[in-house]
Amino acid sequence: MPHPPAHTRAESAQHSPEPETPPDAVQLNHTAVYARDRRLSAEFLATILGLHVGAPFGPFLPLDLGNGVTLDYYEKRDEPIQPQHYAFLVPDERFDAMIARLEAVGVIYHADPGHTEPGRVNRLFGGRGAYFADPSGHNMEIITRPYARP
Question: Is the predicted pLDDT of residue 76 greater than 90, yes or no?
Answer without folding.
Answer: yes
